[in-house]
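Weekly structure sync, notes
Attendees: PL, DS, HV (note-taker this week)

Item 1: Lysophosphatidylcholine acyltransferase 1
DS walked through the input record. Source organism listed as Stegastes partitus. Sequence as pasted into the shared doc:
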Amino acid sequence: MKTTNSRSSRFGKNPFVHQLKLTGREKLKIALMSVTVFPVRLLLVSFLMLLAWPFAFTASLCRSEFVIEPQSWWRRFIDLSLRVIMRAMWFCGGFHWIKVKGERAAPSEAPILTVAPHSAYFDAIPVTMTMCSIVTKLESRSIPVWGTLISYIRPVFVFRSDQDSRRKTVEEIKRRAQSGGKWPQIMIFPEGTCTNRSGLILFKAGAFIPGLPVQPVILRYPNKLDTVTWTWQGPGAFKILWLTLCQPHNSMEIEYLPIYTPSEEEKKNPALFANNVRKLMAKALELPLTDLSFDDREISLSQGPLRIHDYSSLLEFNQLICRLGLRAGTTGKALEEQARRARKLQGDTLGLDDFAQFLNLPVTDTLEQVHSFFDQHGAGQIDIRHYVTALSVVHRPLKPMETLKLAFKMYESEETGEILEEDLAVVFEIMLGVKEVDLSGMFLVLEGPDTGRISYAELQNFIQKFRNFALECLDFKDHPRKFCVARETRCNGNNQEKNKDN
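Item 1 (cont.): predicted structure, written out as tokens:
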């Protein structure tokens, strides 16, 4: 696959990874706080949460999720009581003062608040301060105590088991947003997942489909030690709670930006509306934009012996096939069928029209971009096996051995079940997102005669011997080993020693 330097800059630092490194002094401070302050804080936080439960439970009785109800005096009293209890709970958790900038707009002026970056479960603080509705999965209301509090704010529930859930969720957001301020404001985190605040990932379009004014809200945690970030790879929920409650003070800033009113073009194009709001929020946060989305997280988090080394080209490929609607229809069975058809071509190359026919799609600019990804020599022809391999990688990035097995089915000899060294090198280039893979070192240490061929079983056994197979046993352009003079090696290093002895 082709790669360019601009792609790496577009994706930047991985937003789904948070590495928390503690100094000796910080470890000592946490140890002292763990046996003094932490137990007291945990007890107080738990007590206040339990205290809030009967208020929320009472107010939620006989309450419809779809009908607007007048705020009676006793509901207003419960609402005020819950705000006070929740603020006291956050205070006991170390959030002693929360700096609020700007002014929150009225629901009639901005029915939707878009909040970013979403990086912690402490992002619930502005929700409890405003009692806005949120969009959350249906399973959330089953959480003991906290689920009742969530139900109280009348959220828009997402039914993940329902295939039509996304459309129904957008329709409900639109219905409430167009009520003229009769429904509570909806607070939406358009990133759709938690990141490490290194940049703003792509926004989902749900908050912007109604085409109504939104008020951007930005969150900051200006602590010296970041114990609040909770994302896909890093400290778990309980560790974050423990470390945060062990901090003398936890800083937080909430800033309400001016209302953003969409243009006629933005009303017709929610993706454009979302991206323009994202740019505005990134500028206020002084953060870069990163062209990653919730759907890209598994690609950027691949691990193991065949982890993706440079995921920039695969991420761009993934976004293109999503635009074509190919990602949604990809299944293991569909991949097997495409691999079977690709094998029949026996390496024959396809032009753009033949490629479109293979996928049963019309020729478009996006399809031409996908085709060019695999046109290494600029001749307008591609090996369809390269495309199928890449599609398998982005479909199941956490299962590289399944992709490798699929590739063998397309490339292996019918007589021996083996694959040529040069074909395997191409497969690894696609799977790892790298260039110019050299397998000569690996083939030298394989047991048996060096025939330049290998079976899937032999390769599988060999990979299992090395925890970091790609880095230890393969050579490729810009390999990290080339920049580490004193790096210990196990595979290629051994080969080099053998070569010296010979």
